[in-house]
């Protein structure tokens, strides 16, 4: 009789992981189902099974190392009874094929948790700023009340599945192995509904729409997610409900653009106000001593303001979800050139332009200097 270590191709001092790896590789290679039922392959596989059943057991392995084949005769080795082939397959290959062949979770399925649900909710920037209470109508699965989720007609009860005897699993032989899988008749529940409930048609659950109140926290941002525990689908056979996840999207605003906690707003400024300095009104989303009830705030425009220049108003932006911090309101100034001028206005502007010099238009003077040097280089002028 061949040495068990030689059969598996491992050293005597190998550890359990190496032993298992060697058996897995050779068992896959010599499995009868992969060799067309070849008797030689079947014999080789049986030999591998015998060797592994002894060496994988610490007590048997110690006895075999000391006394050889004679020592394990009568202990489940040397031609005596070994581990069931199904048990060895489950032990060695369960992590690969367990889910595929249904060899995990041999017990019939108990109450199952309900599915989580998703609801997409669009809110306004004002709601995101101040927080809000919003009502939503969401489709969900509820436990059938007439049958209390059993699926059986009121006054009756589900019966034990006659195919699996209530185990929820059946065993089928495939080649050399005996494979377990979910019972096809009861779906793994271990029970059958012979007289189904008319309200839910034996499902134990019904589909309905529910109206829920959702609290939107102040400062919520686009893409945020709110979890409502236990507001998802009902669980199977009395299992716990799933959760409802609210995914928030904030509708684009016609005046404000959000940048983190800051709010950005572009405000037109009359040309005269920009030149002389003064005050303009800007929209805001909060009150305060400088903000009236119409959500307007006075913004000071510095003398000589230019388009693109910004004025930052501290603490006038969005609130933070996790602290008492607030962002800023950033007002971008847009200097507006007057249109549809009267003859008198044109006359005054012409006069004004005539008396302005480089001091009044420093950027223009600087630009013209650069442009002149460029033109001179292009034309070759000295």
Explain what the structure shows:
Zn(2+) 2 binds at residues 161, 164, 183, 186. This protein has 382 residues and is an alpha+beta fold. It folds into five domains: 4-101, Helix Hairpins, CATH 1.10.287; 113-154 and 196-251, HSP40/DNAj peptide-binding domain (Sandwich); 159-192, no CATH class; 257-336, HSP40/DNAj peptide-binding domain; 343-379. Helix content is 29%, strand content 25%. A four-stranded mixed sheet has the order 10-11-15-14. α2 runs antiparallel to α3. The protein is elongated, with a radius of gyration of 40 Å.
The radius of gyration is 40 Å
Mean pLDDT: 82
Q: Which structural class do the helices and strands define?
A: alpha+beta
Text of the CATH class of the largest domain: Mainly Alpha
The side-by-side strand order for the widest beta sheet comes to: 10-11-15-14
Order of helices and strands: HHHHHHEHEEEEEEEEEEHEEEEHH
CATH level-4 homologous superfamily of the largest domain? DnaJ domain
Stated plainly, the CATH topology of the largest domain is called Helix Hairpins
Please, how many helices?
10
The residue ranges in which pLDDT falls below 50 over 5 or more consecutive positions are 75-87, 95-108, 288-293
Largest sheet: 4 strands, mixed
Q: Estimate percent helicity.
A: 25-40%
Q: What's the β-strand tally?
A: 15
- Return the CATH architecture of the largest domain: Orthogonal Bundle
Q: Please report which band the strand proportion falls in: under 5%, 5-15%, 15-25%, 25-35%, 35-45% or over 45%.
A: 15-25%
* Outline: elongated
Q: How far from one another are the termini?
A: 107 Å
Binding site for Zn(2+) 1: 144, 147, 197, 200
Protein name: Chaperone protein DnaJ
Organism: Phenylobacterium soli
Pfam families: DnaJ, DnaJ_C, DnaJ_CXXCXGXG
């Amino acid at each position: 009789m061949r040495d068990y270590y030689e059969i598996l191709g491992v050293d005597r001092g190998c550890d359990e992981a190496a032993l298992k790896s060697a058996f897995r590789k050779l068992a896959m290679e010599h499995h009868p189902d992969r060799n067309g039922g070849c008797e030689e392959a079947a014999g080789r596989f049986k030999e591998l099974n015998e060797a592994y059943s002894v060496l994988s057991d610490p007590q048997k392995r110690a006895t075999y190392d000391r006394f050889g084949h004679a020592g394990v005769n009568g202990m489940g080795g040397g031609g005596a009874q070994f581990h069931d082939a199904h048990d060895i397959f489950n032990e060695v290959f369960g992590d690969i094929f367990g889910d595929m062949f249904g060899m995990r979770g041999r017990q019939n399925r108990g109450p199952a948790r309900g599915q989580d649900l998703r609801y997409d909710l669009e809110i306004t920037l004002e709601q995101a700023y101040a927080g809000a209470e919003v009502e939503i109508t969401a489709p969900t699965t509820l436990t059938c009340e007439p049958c209390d989720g059993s699926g059986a007609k009121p006054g009756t009860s589900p019966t034990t599945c006659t195919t699996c005897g209530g185990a929820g699993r059946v065993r089928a032989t495939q080649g050399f192995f005996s494979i377990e899988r979910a019972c096809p008749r009861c779906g793994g529940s271990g029970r059958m509904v012979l007289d189904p409930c008319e309200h839910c048609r034996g499902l134990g659950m019904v589909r309905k729409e529910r109206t829920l109140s959702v609290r939107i926290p102040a400062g919520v941002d686009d893409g945020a997610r709110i979890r409502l525990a236990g507001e998802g689908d009902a669980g199977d056979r009395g299992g716990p409900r799933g959760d409802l996840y609210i995914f928030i999207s904030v509708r684009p605003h016609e005046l404000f653009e959000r940048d983190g906690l800051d709010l950005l707003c572009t405000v037109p400024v009359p040309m005269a106000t920009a030149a002389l300095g003064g005050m303009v009104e800007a929209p805001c989303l909060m009150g305060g001593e400088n903000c009236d009830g119409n959500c307007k705030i006075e913004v000071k425009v510095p003398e000589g303001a230019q388009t693109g220049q910004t004025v930052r108003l501290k603490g006038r932006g969005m609130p933070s979800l996790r602290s008492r911090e607030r962002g800023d309101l950033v007002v971008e100034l847009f200097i507006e050139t007057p249109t549809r001028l009267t003859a008198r206005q044109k006359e005054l502007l012409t006069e004004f332009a005539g008396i302005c010099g480089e001091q009044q238009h420093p950027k223009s003077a600087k630009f013209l200097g650069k442009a002149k040097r460029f033109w001179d280089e292009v034309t070759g002028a000295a």
